[in-house]
Design brief:
It contains three helices and six strands. With 97 residues, the chain is an alpha+beta fold. The strands form two sheets. The protein has a four-stranded antiparallel sheet. A two-stranded antiparallel ribbon has the order 1-4. The model has no long low-confidence stretch (mean pLDDT 86).
Length: 97
């Protein structure tokens, strides 16, 4: 596969459908097809590939949305990597985002 490929679980996660781990479970359960072929764990896909979960086409974009951004942070000890608002020491509060 070319350098433009991406892991299938990452592509599903990037669509907002579910997390990468949940995507792995869907693939293992045989619920994911790529271009009409059942997906296997570790598969890689191109931006042009058609992905279906439970016979429903996954809505994908080949361009990031305006709200897409990346934060690189050396997280201090005691700060949790969650966006759960009930966690007073979550990373979102720490960053004041």
């Amino acid at each position: 596969m070319s350098d433009e490929s991406i892991s299938l679980n990452k592509r599903i996660s990037a669509s907002g459908y579910c997390s990468r781990r949940e995507a792995d479970r869907l693939i293992e359960q045989g619920r994911v097809c790529v271009n009409g072929i059942p997906a296997m764990p570790g598969d890689r896909v191109l931006l042009t590939d058609e992905i279906h979960i439970d016979d429903e086409r996954l809505k994908l974009s080949d361009k990031p949305t305006d709200s897409t951004f990346v934060i690189a942070l050396h997280k201090p000890l005691g700060i949790t990597s969650t966006t759960d608002p009930s966690d007073k020491r979550n990373v979102i509060r720490f960053l004041n985002h």
